[in-house]
Write a structure and sequence with these properties.
This protein is mainly α. It has 23 helices and no strands. Helix 10 packs antiparallel against helix 11 and helix 17 packs across helix 21. The longest helix is centred in the middle third of the chain and has 27 residues. The protein is elongated, with a radius of gyration of 29 Å.
């Protein structure tokens, strides 16, 4: 009857909220909501100050009220988009403030440069820079939405409300980056996208100029040239500032991830020399995780590089982990199960300390601390239970299951969950006496279900359909790795066992 008494945590939370008539009020009183509202209000006030600034000091009350209305409405649209598609900004106040600083500073640059020079191409440059930075720091969909927001605000900031040429030219420069710059794996990729954006800006500026004034072709090209040039120039400048942007936004582009996948990286070299079994294990997990991530449309490169570093904590005590034990004698035979558990679980803490010491990016550190989640270390827990049952003392305490669990946290991204499962299935597949495709598929499914039922995927929004696709991919990759081989024929002048 215990099975029927189990309650899903989500169902319990829903029932509690339904029973509480003030659930909506308590949700509004959430500190994250309060701080997010304050940051939004700061954005509105700063934007109104920039858009409403008049060097002559002759801003009319009616015009100022109209500016406030426009900024509030655009700000509300941005807030609704963030609440739906970028919820982490509500909890991550530092990134939210960073977004406000980026948008407002670009508005100031656009307004100041246009006021000082009278040239509209500076506004196009700021729109392109904003779209490029947002695409690198966040994702394409979010960058596209925020680029629309910025372009509209910049359109009002440069005070050319009747000239839609400026607005469409800014959008023509910003959108190619949002559409085409999914990842930066090579140094040429950013330049290629910048060239496409420059061509798009040139064509849009030329077309709009002709439609508005019907000028001669040579005048059209002269007017469109500066817009295209500044678009290309921004791409070149951002490429040089890419390491700075990664530090500021605490991200790692694909180009940086490729650098960290190099076997000559100091940490990977230490892992290969001091814990060769773990190093080989990590390489295989990387290939399994990368294929599984790509099967559900996630970042396969991030999974592969994260898998390389997940077990670096084993460098400190490599001999206590089975893949590094050259002989058949285990180092844990002389230790109590509780002490063995501390050593095994300790490689998480050791790995995080090494990651900080070697300056590993935060996006890779997540794999170190979450690749076991809060799973039970079953082998040593069972050993502790056996010792307790065999003990003659009635005063001995029953081993606590919580004391034999990894410290966590649970995976918070789908990539981290994939690496966790890949680590488990690769180790389990090694124990199979005969690794046939059917047996591998059963092992993968059992490992996935065990972690699902233990709640390890609760914080990463992994759907059952995605989990099924991940299982299929991992089963296929493992089956390919454990493929059968044809026995070599035995030479007539050698004993049979020497050829095995």
């Amino acid at each position: 009857m215990g099975f029927f008494n189990r309650t899903n945590p989500r169902r319990s939370r829903v029932r509690k909220e339904m029973a509480n008539p003030f659930a909506d009020l308590s949700r509004l009183a959430n500190p994250d909501v309060i701080y997010s509202s304050a940051i939004w209000l700061l954005f509105v006030l700063l934007s109104v100050a920039v858009l409403g600034y008049d060097p002559k000091g002759q801003t009319a009350y009616g015009r100022f009220a109209a500016i406030v209305t426009v900024v509030v409405l655009i700000g509300l649209a941005a807030a609704f988009h963030i609440s739906q598609y970028q919820k982490r900004l509500i909890k991550n106040r530092v990134r939210a403030i960073g977004l406000v600083v980026l948008l407002v500073s670009m508005l100031i640059c656009a307004k100041a440069s246009v006021l000082m020079t009278g040239q509209m191409f500076w506004a196009t440059g700021t729109a392109v820079a904003t779209a490029l930075i947002l695409t690198i720091a966040y994702n394409q969909r979010f960058a596209m939405a925020m680029s629309f927001v910025y372009c509209i605000l910049a359109f009002f900031a440069v005070d050319r409300i009747t000239d839609f040429n400026i607005l469409l030219t800014m959008l023509a420069g910003a959108l190619p980056y949002c559409f085409l710059l999914k990842e930066i794996r090579t140094r040429m990729r950013l330049l290629e996208v910048s060239l496409v954006a420059a061509i798009t800006v040139f064509m849009m500026s030329t077309a709009m100029k002709y439609l508005s004034s019907s000028e001669l072709p040579e005048n059209l090209f002269t007017a469109a040239g500066p817009n295209a040039a500044v678009t290309l120039l921004v791409g070149v400048l951002i490429q040089g500032l890419l390491p700075v942007l990664e530090k500021v936004f605490r991200i790692a582009t694909s180009m940086t991830l490729l650098d960290y996948s190099d076997a000559n990286q100091p940490l990977l070299k230490r892992l290969a020399m001091e814990a060769p079994g773990t190093y080989s294990h990590s390489l295989l997990i990387g290939s399994i995780a990368e294929a599984a991530a790509e099967a559900i449309g996630r970042n396969g490169l991030l999974c592969r590089v994260g898998a390389y570093y997940q077990d670096i904590g084993k460098i400190n005590k490599p001999g206590y982990f089975v893949e590094n034990q050259l002989g058949s004698i285990s180092w844990h035979k002389e230790l109590s199960p509780a002490m063995s558990q501390l050593i095994i679980a300790g490689h998480i803490k050791d790995g995080m300390e090494l990651a900080k010491e070697y300056g590993l990016p935060p996006v890779l550190r997540q794999f170190i601390e979450t690749h076991h989640g809060t799973m039970l270390i079953e082998y040593f827990y069972n050993e502790a239970m056996k010792q307790h049952e065999q003990s003659d003392s009635s005063d001995s305490l029953v081993p606590s299951e919580g004391a034999f669990r990894y410290p966590g946290p649970k995976p918070r991204t789908k990539e981290a969950a994939i690496v966790m499962l890949a680590d488990a299935v690769e180790g389990a597949a090694r124990t199979l006496p005969e690794a046939t495709p059917n047996k591998i598929e059963a092992v993968v499914h059992n490992m996935a279900m065990k972690r699902l039922q233990d709640g390890q995927f609760d914080e990463c929004d992994l759907s059952l359909r995605e989990l099924s696709l991940i299982e299929a991919s991992m089963s296929k990759t493992l089956a390919a790795h454990h493929h059968g081989r044809i026995a070599y024929p035995t030479p007539p002048d050698m004993p049979p066992d020497l050829s095995q």
